[in-house]
Amino acid sequence: MARHHYGQGDYRYFGYPLPEPVAALREAFYPPLAVIANGWQESLRREPRFAPTLAEFIAHCHASGQQRPTPLLLRYEAGGWNAMHQDVYGDVAFPLQVAILLSRPGPDFEGGEFLLLSQRPRAQSRGEAVALSQGDAIVFPNADRPGPGARGPVRWATRHGVSTVRTGVRMTLGLIFHDAR
Predict the structure, then answer these.
(1) Has this prediction a pTM greater than 0.85?
(2) pLDDT-based confidence at 19, cuts 50/70/90?
């Protein structure tokens, strides 16, 4: 991460074929999240709509030249952190993703809260820190989300990251649903 100025830590993307547990989680999460994503698209008056199955959506990614899988493992040692960022890897992007904490807060690490920052139009940014337990999954926007506006839903730009790990080692599984170029 440091050489790209993304933070301090290590990340590794999985290749195809994905490990069975990772593929199974991605398959299970996608359909209900596609319903939410399509609701977001509708509320923001956007196209396209997302396919009901992950296989159909991945086929669309591949047809658009995005063929590299994006699920990854993230590892942060004491002093490690992840800069506030968005995960969009091409023209085709699914608006939600999932992070699953694999380590145990306390025995394995301290610090390392999951961070979300939403930029509301014509207003100050709003940040939230989320303390996860081992095995917890958080679903969050990869780039933006609908938020309340004076005349109906508006686009709120959103970034995510990880605060500094004070002690130990924090491991996370990241499930991004669109493939990359």
Answers:
(1) yes
(2) very high
Task: Note if the bond before 141 is cis, omega within 30 degrees.
Answer: no
DSSP for 110-155 reads: EE--EEEEEE-TTS-EEEEEEPPPTT-EEEEESSEEEE--TTS-EE
* DSSP code at position 88: -
Q: What are phi and psi of 37, to 5 degrees?
A: -60, -40
Q: What is the CA 114 to chain-centroid distance, rounded? A: 11
- 120 domain residue, yes or no: yes
CATH code for position 121: 2.60.120.10
**Domain, as residue range, for 97:** 2-176
pLDDT digits (tens, 9 = 90+) for 22-60: 999 999 999 999 999 999 999 999 988 999 999 999 999
C-beta of residue 110 within 8 angstroms of C-beta of residue 79 = no
* CA atoms within a 13 Å half-sphere pointing along the CA-CB vector of 106: 5
The contacts of residue 95 (CB under 8 Å, 6+ apart) are: 37, 40, 41, 141, 142, 143, 144, 145
